[in-house]
C-alpha cells in the first residue's frame, strides 16, 4: 500500500516531531489536536527544526518552505478524510486512545491504516475498538523523533503482514530503521529503558547523590548522550510515570514507580513542558 497522506493525531512532544519527519521526507501531513495552543506550539517547533537545517546548510530556505507547506494544522476531524495512514500520538491513556481510534475508524477510508505511537499500551486492545484490526499496528518513534533512528513496528494479534510491510517501507522512506516487535507491555526498548531508570532512581534515593551529578557521570562515561534525569524531564514526567505504571501492572515489583517520580507528577512538575521537573528551567 502506498502512503499518500499521513494524519498525526496529537501535536505534543512526539506528534510535532513526527509531523516534521514526514514533511521533511516529502509526505503531506495533517496534524490534528483538540487544543489550539498545542498546534501553535507544534508549528513553532517545526519551524525551528527546518530553520536549523537551513542554518546548517542542509537545505535551501525555499526547500524548507516547500516542506513546511506540506503540513496542515487542524482541530477538525473533517480534514482527515483522505489520510491513508493515521498516527495516533495523544496522551498515554487507554481510554483517550480508544476514543481516538473509534473516531479514526469512522472517519478514515476503509483501507487506511491506523497506528499508535504508544510507549507501552496494548495494540490489540486499541485494534479491538475498530472494524479493521488487521490494519492497526504500533509505530513507535523515540524521543526526539527528528533525531532518533529507531522505530518499533509492533504487530497486534490481528495485524496483517501487509500492514507491517507497508509500515517498514514507510519507516525506510523517512530514513528511520524499523525493528519488528511482538506485542508485550513496553515492547522492547521501554522495558530496558524503564528498568534502568528504576535502578537509577533507587540508587539516587538511597544515596541522595544530586540528579546533576548522576547525569554528568552518565554523559562523561559515554553510556548515553544525555543523563537520565535530563532525559526524563525532556520527554515528560507524566508520560514516563504512565509508562512506568503500565509496566508495573504487567511485570510487578521490579517496575514499582519511584516515590520521587510520583511526587513530582502529583505536584504538576512534569519536566521541561512545565518548566519544573527533576530540574528547574
Ligand atoms: N514523550 C516521549 O518521549 C514519548 C516517546 C515515545 C512515545 N511517546 C508516546 O507518544 C504519545 C504522545 O506523547 P507526548 O509526549 O507527545 O504527549 P504530550 O502530552 O506532549 O502530547 C499529547 C497531545 O495530545 C493531545 N490530545 C489529547 N487528547 C486528544 C484527542 N482526543 N485528539 C487529539 N489530540 C489530543 C493533547 O492536547 C496534547 O497536545 C504517548 O502515547 C506517549 O507514550 C512519548
Write the layout of secondary structure elements.
Layout: E1 6-9, H1 13-24, E2 29-32, H2 36-55, H3 61-68, E3 71-74, E4 85-88, H4 94-107, E5 113-116, H5 123-127, E6 136-141, E7 150-155, H6 161-173, E8 177-182, H7 189-207, H8 211-221, H9 228-235, H10 237-251, H11 259-266
Parallel strand pairs: 1-2, 1-4, 2-3, 4-5, 5-6, 7-8
Antiparallel strand pairs: 6-7
Helix pairs in contact: 1-2, 2-3
In helices, the fraction of residues equals 40-55%
User: How would you characterize the largest beta sheet?
Assistant: 8 strands, mixed
Quantity of strands, as a count? 8
Small-molecule binders here are:
nicotinamide-adenine-dinucleotide
In total, the number of domains comes to 2
CATH superfamily of the largest domain: NAD(P)-binding Rossmann-like Domain
Distance between the termini: 45 Å
Write down the overall geometry. globular
Multimeric state: single chain
CATH structural architecture of the largest domain: 3-Layer(aba) Sandwich
Widest sheet, order of strands: 3-2-1-4-5-6-7-8
Total helical segments: 11
- Overall mean confidence score, pLDDT: 96
The radius of gyration is 19 Å
Amino acid at each position: 500500500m502506498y502512503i499518500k497522506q499521513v494524519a498525526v493525531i496529537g501535536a505534543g512532544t512526539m506528534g510535532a516531531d513526527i509531523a516534521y519527519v514526514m514533511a521533511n521526507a516529502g509526505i503531506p501531513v495533517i496534524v490534528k489536536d483538540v487544543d489550539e495552543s498545542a498546534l501553535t506550539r507544534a508549528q513553532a517547533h517545526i519551524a525551528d527544526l527546518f530553520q536549523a537545517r537551513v542554518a546548517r546548510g542542509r537545505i535551501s530556505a525555499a526547500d524548507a518552505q516547500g516542506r513546511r507547506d506540506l503540513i496542515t494544522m487542524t482541530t477538525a476531524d473533517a480534514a482527515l478524510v483522505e489520510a491513508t495512514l493515521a498516527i495516533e500520538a495523544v496522551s498515554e491513556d487507554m481510554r483517550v486512545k480508544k476514543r481516538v481510534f473509534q473516531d479514526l475508524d469512522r472517519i478514515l477510508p476503509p483501507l487506511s491504516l491506523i497506528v499508535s505511537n504508544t510507549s507501552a499500551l496494548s495494540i490489540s486492545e486499541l485494534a479491538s475498538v475498530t472494524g479493521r484490526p488487521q490494519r492497526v499496528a504500533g509505530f513507535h518513534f523515540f524521543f526526539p523523533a527528528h533525531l532518533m533512528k529507531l522505530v518499533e513496528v509492533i504487530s497486534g494479534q490481528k495485524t496483517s503482514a501487509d500492514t507491517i510491510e507497508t509500515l517498514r517501507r514507510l519507516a525506510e522512506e523517512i530514513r528511520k530503521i524499523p525493528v519488528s516487535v511482538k506485542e508485550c507491555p513496553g515492547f522492547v526498548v521501554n522495558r530496558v529503558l524503564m528498568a534502568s531508570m528504576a535502578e537509577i532512581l533507587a540508587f539516587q534515593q538511597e544515596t541522595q547523590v544530586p540528579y546533576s551529578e548522576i547525569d554528568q557521570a552518565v554523559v562523561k562515561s559515554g553510556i548515553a548522550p544525555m543523563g537520565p534525569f535530563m532525559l526524563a524531564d525532556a520527554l515528560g514526567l507524566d508520560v514516563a510515570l504512565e509508562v512506568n505504571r503500565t509496566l508495573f501492572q504487567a511485570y510487578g515489583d521490579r517496575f514499582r514507580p519511584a516515590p520521587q517520580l510520583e511526587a513530582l507528577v502529583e505536584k504538576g512538575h512534569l519536566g521541561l513542558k512545565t518548566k519544573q521537573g527533576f530540574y528547574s528551567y
